[in-house]
C-alpha cells in the first residue's frame, strides 16, 4: 500500500504553505502562548502510545534527531514545555483543516507540519519526517530539521476520530 503524505512548511508568512521566503524561519517576535488543548479522551495524543512504547511526541522528536545525527548535527533539545501547546496546535489545525493555522501560538520560530497523515503514529510520523528530510538542503522542511539556528524541537500530535494524524514540529 502506498503512503501519501502532504508536507507543508511555514515560511515568513504563516499563511504561506510552500516554504518560501526564509525557508520556514521566522525572526523576531512571534507571539507566545502557553495555551494547550487541555483535553483528554478519544482523539488526543495523550491517548496514543506507539508500538515502541514511546509517545508520538517523543517518537517525532527522536526521529528528527536520528536524521540530524546521521548528518553529524547535534541533537535538538526536547522542548517539553511546549508539547502540550503543540498538541493544541495540531488539534486546532485538524479541526479547522488548516495546516499552520495555529502557528505561532507556542512561541516557535519555525514549524513543519504533517497534515492528515494516514496510518498509526509509529508508521506515519517517521514516514512524513523522512520525506521532509529527503528534500535536502534548500527544502524548507529539511532546513528546519537541520538548522543550527534552532536548539529545541517540540512535536505536537493529534489523531482524529478517523485515525488521521496531524503532527506539528515546532522549532526554537
Description:
- With 172 residues, this protein is α+β, with helices and mostly antiparallel strands.
- It contains 4 helices and 5 strands; from the N terminus they run E-H-E-H-E-H-H-E-E.
- It has helices at residues 56-70, 83-96, 121-134, 140-146, and strands spanning 8-9, 77-78, 110-117, 152-159, 165-171.
- Strands 1-3-5-4-2 form a 5-stranded mixed sheet.
- Helix 1 packs parallel to helix 3 (121-134).
- It is globular, with a radius of gyration of 14 Å.
Q: SSE order in H/E notation?
A: EHEHEHHEE
Which blocks of ≥5 consecutive residues have pLDDT under 50? 1-49
User: Count of DSSP E strands?
Assistant: 5
Helical residues, percent: 25-40%
What fraction of residues sit in β-strands? Answer: 15-25%
- Calculate the terminal CA-CA distance, rounded to whole Å: 36 Å
- The number of helical elements comes to 4
Query: Going across the major beta sheet, what is the strand order?
Result: 1-3-5-4-2
Biggest β-sheet strands, sense, barrel = 5 strands, mixed
Rg (C-alpha, Å): 14 Å
Q: Please state the overall shape, judged from the principal axes of the Cα atoms.
A: globular
User: Quick check: average pLDDT?
Assistant: 79
Could you outline the blueprint of secondary structure elements for this entry?
Elements: E1 8-9, H1 56-70, E2 77-78, H2 83-96, E3 110-117, H3 121-134, H4 140-146, E4 152-159, E5 165-171
Parallel strand pairs: 2-4
Antiparallel strand pairs: 1-3, 3-5, 4-5
